[in-house]
Amino acid sequence: MTPQPNPQAGAAVKAADRAHVFHSWSAQELIDPLAVAGAEGAYFWDYDGKRYLDFSSGLVFANIGYQHPKVVAAIQEQAATLSTFAPAFAVEARSEAARLIADRTPGDLDKIFFTNGGAEAVENATRMARLHTGRSKVLSAYRSYHGATAAAINLTGDPRRWPSDTASAGVVHFWAPFLYRSPFHAETEAQECERALQHLADTIAFEGPATIAAIILETVPGTAGIMVPPPGYLEGVRALCDQYGIVFVLDEVMAGFGRTGEWFAADHFGVVPDLMTFAKGVNSGYVPLGGVAISGAVAETFARRPYPGGLTYSGHPLACAAAVATINVMEEERIVEQAARIGESVLGPGLRELAERHPSVGEVRGMGAFWALELVRNKETREPLVPYNASGEANAPMAAFGAAAKKHGLWPFINMNRTHVVPPCNITEAEAKEGLAALDEALSAADQHTA
């Protein structure tokens, strides 16, 4: 689709936004939201007709791209048939979405509790774990993000937690493996894995195993940096949970539904959690939907005991119809396989080649359509390009990089000193190469701040 400029309409949209919309995670008077006129596939455009290749997939949710005609048609058909209905009833779209999800989750995660998004999924997963075990504490990692609702934000390990951290939410944080910035002074992946597992075992011992309901981990941490866990780590966490009767929760809100080149990132590691949260890619974000996939053992706890939780829009028919269509499209168009192929043959090699030429790129890591570039001032010292949680003038180097990317028609995903390469999972080879070329140009702006 060729964007048609309409600056007057764009100005009206922008004016209404600035007058009435309260934006998340923002100082309201310091932001300047782009007015978006439309989107299709891997691209979106503004009212001036400028088109951007979206290397952020929205907020890493548009796994099949924007405006896929089959998903749009499924939403329209559902709206005409049964646009909404209460969650206590059996509804075809809801039942079919649950069946399709359960068919793809690992192990016996065969019961699906629907939510409106990822944070609510985490809220309910931790509640289920606490009720199932009769214990109160939940362990989660630093360098993590689990959502912005009450329990989820306390589980989060990045600075977005700080303003809302009550220090009384029954959460204990620990260090998960990250070899590039190892908290364990490891020199190899094997050392990092062994020392991270020992650290977790020690944390469990000193917190008291009988007090711990759950350990929650992002299978591959997303916003925190796309740190693929070393071989053996998740298996080791599973073993610790089994040893102490702790519920193992994997957060696949961002990593699930093809993002890593498998239906779920857990499939890469052969690990089956007790609970798994999902959202985002389940229907490419077309209508808000999330959920918890529940093992047989946890589900049995609530077979004759009411589960004390629910949502008015749990399993909303429009959202579930979008999920059914999205999963079918992913099968028909082999989008999971495409994510794996594009990561292995284009994104991975292309990003590593950029790292060789740009002094600002300290590390490339990822899989599938899920990659991160760690930007640094100095490759030898690994000093981040900007300080941890930088803002204002201290964040100027990353701001310059972001502006350069947008100038070259690339919309980046930026967090702290990283840019994430997370395009739609069905991005074509030509589109991926277009994005890498724009990224190459933008990294020159970051290079200006290296030593």
From TrEMBL:
Transferase listed as a keyword: yes
Pfam families the record matches: Aminotran_3 (PF00202)
InterPro entries membership: Aminotrans_3, Aminotrans_3_PPA_site, PyrdxlP-dep_Trfase, PyrdxlP-dep_Trfase_major, PyrdxlP-dep_Trfase_small
UniProt keyword annotations, A-Z: Aminotransferase, Pyridoxal phosphate, Transferase
CDD domains: OAT_like (cd00610)
Cofactor(s) the protein needs: pyridoxal 5'-phosphate
A single MF term (Gene Ontology): pyridoxal phosphate binding
Keyword Transferase included in the entry's annotation: yes
Gene3D superfamilies: Aspartate Aminotransferase, domain 1, Type I PLP-dependent aspartate aminotransferase-like (Major domain)
Record GO cellular component, one term: cytosol
Similarity field: Belongs to the class-III pyridoxal-phosphate-dependent aminotransferase family.
NCBIfam families in the record: PRK06062.1
Name this polypeptide is given: Aspartate aminotransferase family protein
Organism: Streptomyces scabichelini
